[in-house]
Amino acid sequence: MKKILIIVTNHSTLGDTEEQNGTYLPELTHAVHEFNEQNIDYDIASITGGNAPLYGIDTPDDSINTSVYENSEFKSKIEDTKKVLDLDFSAYDAIYYPGGYGLLTDIASHEELGKKSAQFFESSKPLGSVCHGPAALLPITLSNGSSILEGREVTGFTREEEIEMGTLEKIPYLLEESLTRKAKLYKKMQPWSEHVIVDSNLITGQNPQSAAKVAKEIINQL
Questions:
Q1: Residue 196 belongs to a domain with what CATH number?
Q2: Would you say 201 and 221 are in contact if contact means Cβ atoms under 8 Å apart?
Q3: What is the rounded CA–CA span in Å between residue 125 and residue 184?
Q4: Is the dihedral of CA 82, 86, 91, 93 positive or negative?
Q5: H or E stretch including 176?
Q6: What pTM does this model have?
């Protein structure tokens, strides 16, 4: 059975504010739903392990988010995440980074995780991320010394979407700018449009609406 490693944040607030944050749950649950539909197993890991902070739990119009969140297997995995640096990445067939503002503060600057992700990516296995999840690409340096983003086309949460969320002055940095400075090309669509870019085994999605499509593109490469 194929198995995917999902890596989530331990940071529980929006930047340095006291606003509750972490991983945006629908970007996790909609991907897990796609994996479950194809009988693909998954583990959830974080830097420190343990219970991972979430937001976006109360979504009455999102039946997929609710059903996955209430699933006992999912609950056990998200409430007791594995320590990511203790894992053998070669045991997994893909990596997925869901978004949420939390990872801008921890995963996006974690060099050791970046090293393990680089080795995984260079084994030609798919590495997917969505919304703020592409911030996890920022510390990834390949064996030739170049950024994983160099020469590649990517997307991620946009400045316009930050403005509409009212978070532009609260986030530690603007992801769109950080990706633009490192990638060959950063592409975006209208706010809240499904938008996914596949550049070889690097898969990125713009926003929460793109999470399921990112998962499907990961599955296509398994």
A1: 3.40.50.880
A2: yes
A3: 21
A4: positive
A5: helix 175-182
A6: 0.98
